[in-house]
From TrEMBL:
This is RNA polymerase, sigma-24 subunit, ECF subfamily. Keywords: Sigma factor, Transcription, Transcription regulation. It comes from Actinosynnema mirum (strain ATCC 29888 / DSM 43827 / JCM 3225 / NBRC 14064 / NCIMB 13271 / NRRL B-12336 / IMRU 3971 / 101). Residues 29-98 form the RNA polymerase sigma-70 region domain. InterPro entries: RNA_pol_sigma-70-like, RNA_pol_sigma-70_dom, RNA_pol_sigma70_r2, RNA_pol_sigma70_r4_t2, RNA_pol_sigma_r2, RNA_pol_sigma_r3/r4-like, WH-like_DNA-bd_sf.
Length: 183
């Protein structure tokens, strides 16, 4: 009965149960979130060993810090909170490895729109979605990292493998392009 209840629970409930030391809730949270998390990490890092380490560190951090979950600043969801933890762990891994783990070419210009881009476009409406799609891939990547993933300029620079100044310039260009497209 308990297993069935956990399978129908949302991720926020599972995080809160994990905070109380509920291993079954943690296992269900892992079962539910690890596939999409691994895909998102692989889009940003081609090194499977780094992805595996980041996954392990992320779920260890979730187990230890579940009690501090109060909602993600970006969207208030447990999924957003999990991604924020993973993105920061990925930045840390890049720093530890001295930038040897490069993002795959597909992370820079994916041939198919990323799921988060489609969701964002759907949430923000056709006009904003169209403006996002018209941005160059490098400008979209900066927006994705800074807005969707909630990374800082420094973290975005590490993940994208470009200097901080380039991130700032691209972010500014993206804001100007979006402003022009929406006015």
């Amino acid at each position: 009965m308990k297993r069935k209840r956990l399978e129908s629970a949302d991720e926020e409930f599972l995080v809160r149960r994990t905070a109380r030391g509920d291993r079954a809730a943690f296992e269900e949270l892992y079962r539910r979130t690890s596939p999409w998390l691994a895909v998102r990490l692989r889009r940003r890092c081609a090194d499977e060993q780094v992805v595996a380490e980041v996954m392990q560190e992320t779920y260890l951090a979730i187990w230890r810090a579940a009690g501090s979950f109060a909602g993600s600043a970006a969207d208030g969801s447990a999924v957003g909170w999990i991604w924020t933890i993973a993105a920061r762990r990925l930045v840390d891994a890049f720093r530890r490895r001295g930038h040897h783990a490069e993002p795959p070419a597909s992370a820079v210009a994916p041939p198919v729109p990323a799921v988060e881009e489609e969701v964002l476009a759907g949430v923000l409406g056709d006009e904003v979605g169209d403006a996002l799609r018209r941005l160059s891939p490098e400008l979209r990547d900066v927006l994705r990292a800074m807005v969707l993933d909630g990374l800082t300029v420094t973290e975005t620079a590490v993940v994208l493998g470009v200097p901080e100044g380039t991130v700032k310039t691209r972010a500014r260009r993206a804001r100007i392009a979006m402003r022009e497209a929406l006015s």
